[in-house]
Amino acid sequence: MPVITIDISAMATEKKAELVKELTVKASEVTKIPEEKFIVFINEMPQENIGIGGKLLSDLMK
To answer: At the top level of CATH, which class does the domain 3-60 belong to?
Structure first.
């Protein structure tokens, strides 16, 4: 079974559901593997655990 893993900052459950669906549909189209075979893992990280350009994302989002 193919596995899709995405690391992302926290997001609403509705957005996670949309993301899982869209990733699955597109990956299935490209690989010709049935959608029901895909597993999607979402690893949520707090913004204070993400650094961009030497700064915390939580600081950049202020």
So the answer is: alpha beta
